[in-house]
Structures are given as C-alpha cells and as structure tokens.
Amino acid sequence: MESVHELTDRELLTKHAEGDEQAFAVLVRRHRERLWAVAVRIMADPEEASDALQDAFLSAFRAAGRFRGEAQVSTWMHRIVVNACHDRLRRRKVRPSTPTEGETLDVMANEQDVRSGSTHDHASRTETRIVVRQALEDLPHDQRIALTLVDMLGYRVEDAAAILEVASGTIKSRCARGRSKLLPSLAHLRNPPHPRDVTSERGGANPS
Amino acid sequence: MTSHPEVEALAFFAEGLLESDEERNVARHVESCEECSEALDELSNVSQVLAAAPAPELPPDVADRLEQQIAEAVRDRAVRRPEPTGAPSEPESAPVADLSEHRKRRFGLPRIMMAAAAAVFVIGGGAAVVNGILLQDDEQTDAAAPLMDGQAEEEPGPDAAQSYAPELVRSGTAYTEDGLAEQAAETLDRSPVGGTAESDPLPAETTVPQGAESCASGVGEEIGLRVVLVDDALYGTGPDPAWVMFAPDGDSVEVMVVEAGCGQGDDVDESVLAQETVEAS
Q1: What is the per-residue pLDDT for B273?
Q2: What pLDDT, in 10s, does the model give residues B155-209?
Q3: Using CA atoms, how far apart are residues B120 and B142, in angstroms rounded to an integer?
Q4: What does the alpha-carbon distance between residue B169 and residue B193 come to, in Å, rounded to a whole number?
Q5: Contact (Cβ atoms closer than 8 angstroms) between residue B272 and residue B126
Q6: B62/chain A closest Cα distance in angstroms
Q7: Minimal Cβ distance to B115: which of A55, A64, A197
Q8: From the list A19, A58, A176, which residue is nearest B81 (CB)?
Q9: Which of A59, A66, A139, A172 is the best substitution to test chain B (most B C-beta atoms within 10 A)?
Q10: What CA–CA distance (Å, rounded) separates B138 from B145?
Q11: CA A110 to CA B54: how far, in whole Å?
Q12: How distant, in Å, are the alpha carbons of A103, B169, B213, B263 from that of B206?
C-alpha cells in the first residue's frame, strides 16, 4: 500500500472523497502555512485568520466531492480560503476590529523579527503595520484581496485571477484602483527612517 | 500643457490598462511633469510597502486546532458513512445511530465551526459528499442533454410512459452504501419498471406512504430527471425507513436514497442519504 504522503494533491483529494481518513489531513499539512499567510494578510488579524482558515478547511473537507479537477487543488484551496476570509470581512463591517486584535498581530510579528535575528527598527515597522492595516481596512474588499495576493504575497496576476475566478485584467484594475486609493495614506512611508529595510524586503515578493 | 491625470489613471497607466491614445497622452504628460512622475514612483512604492508589511507565521496552536478540527470532521463523517455491515471491526464505529442523532452531533460542533457547518447544510444536509456527487452528475446531465434530444424525450421507458406517479415497491432491502449499486440494480430488475428479471418479481404496491409522491417529484426536480420507481426500504443499519428513488437518465439510472418523509417541509437536499448511478439493463 502506497504511503499517502507520496500522493499528489489531486490523488489525496480523491482518496478523501472516497472515504479515506488520512488523506485530507495530509493535504492540509501540505498547504496550511501558505494558506495561513494568505488568511492572516487578508484579515490582518491572527484570531480571525485562524477562524477563517478553520471555516475554509471544513468547507473544503465537505466539498471535496465537488472538486472538478479543472483547477489545481492548491488554487481551489486558495479560493476557499479567500472566500472564507471575504465572508468574515463582510461580517466585520458591523463589528470593527479592536485595537487589541491589531496589537496581537504586531506583537506576534515582532516576536518573529526577534526570532529571525532581525535588527529592524521595531517602532517604525510597527507603525508601518498599523498604517497599512488601517489603510487596507478602508478599501473595497475585492481591491483589498487582489492587493493582498499580488502586492503583499507576490502572486502572479494570472494566479490571483485563477484563484478569484476573474480575468487577469480585472485583477490588474483592482490592484491599480487599490494602489491609487492607498497612495495618500501610505505616501509618507516613502522615506522611512531605514529605507534599506524596506527595499531589501520587497525584492522576491513583488513581481511587478 | 494637458491637465494632470488622476492618480487612478496613473495607476492604470502603470499596469498598461489604458486605451492606446489615452496611454500616449499620459506618457507624454508624465515625461514633462515632475509631479506626476513622482506620483508614479509613489504608486510603485505602495506595492513595496505592502510587500514589506510583515505577518506572523502559522502559530503552533492554530496548527493544532486545524488538526483537531479535521480529526473531528473525519470522525463525524465515519459515523455518517457506516462500514458495510458484517465488518464491525471497530467497536466505536459499530452500530450506526439514526439520522436525528447525527444532526444533533453536528449541532454539537464547536461554535467556531457553526457558520461553515450551516453553510454546508443549505446544499449538503446530511451528506455533503453525496451531494457533491449529485451536483457533478447534474452537470454531466446538462452536458449530455443535447445529444439525447429527440431520443430520450420521445421514448421514455416502456412501462413508465403513461404515468407521472412513480411505481412503488417494497423490496425489503436494507441498502448499504457499499452495496447500493448492486442492490439498486437488483431491485430495478425485479421491479415493474425494470422488469427484466425472470424470477422473484416485485409487485407494484398500491398503499403509497404519505409524502412519497411529493418527495419523488422533489427529488426529480433536484436532479432534473423523473423518478419512476420508489422502493420503500431501509438504508444502513438504522431502523428508519428510507425511500430509494430511481430516475432513468438515458442508458443509466440515477438512484437516490432519501430519508422517508422528505416531502414534509424539509428541503429534499437535506434528506438525501446516498446517491448512485447504475446501468439500465
């Protein structure tokens, strides 16, 4: 009997739909870091990102039989996560995020900086995070999600288009609109105290 | 000198989204306008600031929560999809609870999962995976429809042609998930609708259980076919009756197992226990 760990995503999904009890967990372990990165950036809040991820994996678990195999399994999973986040963003409208939630994100990110031995100026980075989060909060959701995928996470426009099931041009225009809306609130970050910190970070993640 | 383009126009320009004459205008303007060329720089700076905004890695406790949730979903599913009878190797999963108990179990999920669970209820009811298959088959049906035009429509099954009410039989079968295809084919053969079996034919019953007809038409609507035969039988090891519905679809027959009484207010979807496609003999 072959090990589930050697199977492709698609084989795992099929096995799961057929009743296999391990396949889905393997699939999740394979993709969870990546999907977490998506969720936590869209939600800008670890608690809500965690909830969205749980929502998403549960729907994926149940919808596996509906997967048609036209898309990559990972694209499909991204789509489900993005949709779960979108649902939560919509609901958030009536319950604006509290400062505490934002601080959690900052603290966690700071801890990560410390772990990775970074010597960045935490104060300015924290300020950047807060400003970015606030600015994203005011964007229409579709622009926010497109910018999260393309600018924050460095997905190719085509990949973002596949995830969101829209044309590439739509992704581009959502990003363009989003960037022009963000410009006023982010322009002052243009010359941060440590400009090299910013430039050194962007390289791999920003294809445009 | 032309007036400054809007920032949004500059952003579109940067993405190459402008019409060619507009693009030419903006390009010319930017070349000679320091302010706008600076705005273009700022726009690409927005992307850089976004790319640089850090976020935490997956916290271990979140990873644990995901593992637990999936383990729970697997257990929940195992209860709803019983092992074939005769192989009760795991004492825990042995006797299968009746449906109402499954429902309670689902409502017992942690609050955090309720939203997603509720969403699945709408389409999936007690058997999301089964419904997944159902949806797939639906699409296949749609795709195949043009090929069957003027064929299937004008020549319905010989015995089914006259009546819109399905035939009812009581085969006494306790259908199982694994044996469904075979059991359904056998019932079909013995039924007045299939009628190819030489021995042991099933008589058409006249005492139709309440709700069976509306349930059959509901199921038919759901899958875009017409139910021609209903077997008032059992499913799994539970004590509750189940109705097994047969709907011919070209060369095959869609078999839907639904909770008895599905016509009484519930969505048909919620009552579907299993689904199978068998070849028409």
Answers
A1: 85
A2: 333 433 334 678 888 888 888 888 898 889 888 888 887 766 666 788 887 777 7
A3: 23
A4: 10
A5: yes
A6: 6
A7: A55
A8: A19
A9: A66
A10: 10
A11: 9
A12: 70, 9, 12, 19
Amino acid at B175: Y
User: Which of B50, B64, B111 should one mutate to test binding to chain A, selecting the residue with the greatest count of A CBs within 10 A?
Assistant: B50
The pairs formed by A13-21 with CB atoms below 8 angstroms and a separation of 24 or more are A13/A64, A13/A67, A13/A73, A16/A61, A16/A64, A17/A64, A17/A65, A17/A67, A17/B129, A17/B132, A19/B77, A19/B81, A21/B74, A21/B78
Residue pair B190/B173 in contact (Cβ under 8 Å)? The answer is no
Domain coordinates in residue numbering, chain B: 7-51, 123-279
Name the strand (E) or helix (H) holding B151. none
Pairing between strand B167-169 and B229-235? parallel
Question: In this predicted structure, what is the pLDDT of residue B2?
Answer: 61
Per-residue pLDDT, averaged over B118-132, amounts to: 39
Give the count of beta carbons closer than 10 Å to the beta carbon of residue A22.
15
Full set of structural domains in chain A with CATH: 1-96 (1.10.1740.10), 98-208 (1.10.10.10)
**Highest mean pLDDT: which of B33-47, B135-149, B245-259, B267-281?**
B33-47
List of chain A residues whose C-beta atoms are within 8 Å of the C-beta of residue B90: none
Q: If DSSP codes are grouped into helix, strand and coil, which group holds residue A205?
A: helix
Q: Cα A80–A75–A199 angle (5° rounding)?
A: 100
The helix/strand count (H/E) of chain A reads as 10, 0
Q: Say which residue the tokens 């497109």 belong to.
A: A146
Give chain B positions within 8 Å (CB) of A125: 54
Closest C-alpha among B109, B74, B135 to residue B272:
B135
Render B202-239 in DSSP notation, one character per residue.
Answer: PPPPS-PPTTHHHHHHHHHHHHTS---EEEEEEETT-S
